[in-house]
Design brief:
Layout lengths: L5 H7 L5 E5 L3 H4 L18 E2 L2 H5 L4 H8 L6 E5 L4 H12 L3 E4 L3 H8 L3
Parallel strand pairs: 1-2, 1-3, 3-4
């Protein structure tokens, strides 16, 4: 699985065929919690929040598909704070039939490089 770069994500952010999936906690997504090393908190514009815990709690392919809510084959870019949770999520999503990739820079990079 090839990682998504900051440049690619910026270019594709408005692409309706791409779902940007934030796998951090809801508090991180809402900007109410996060790492102190980041200059700001929040989420990538247009991202959908689906915490990793909800994905890994699934015990079947059908459960994963139901939690994600997208048809198999959908293109997804997952991110978290530093790329670790999202790497795991992307692997699970690929196993479920999605075209999932990891944005390895994740929020740690985005919060420094991109003004929303």
């Amino acid at each position: 699985m090839e990682d998504v770069t900051l440049a690619e994500l910026r270019e594709r952010l408005e692409d309706a065929a791409l779902t940007v999936l934030d796998v951090r906690t809801q508090l991180e997504f809402e900007g109410l919690a996060g790492a102190h090393c980041d200059p700001r908190q929040g989420h990538i514009p247009g991202a959908v929040n689906l915490p990793l815990e909800r994905i890994v709690a699934c015990r079947s392919l059908e459960e994963v598909l139901g939690v994600v809510g997208l048809p198999p084959g959908a293109e997804i870019v997952a991110y978290c704070h530093s790329g670790s949770r999202s790497r795991f999520a992307a692997e699970v999503l690929v196993g479920a039939g999605y075209k999932a990739r990891n944005y390895v820079g994740s929020w740690h990079e985005w919060s420094r490089e991109v003004a929303d």
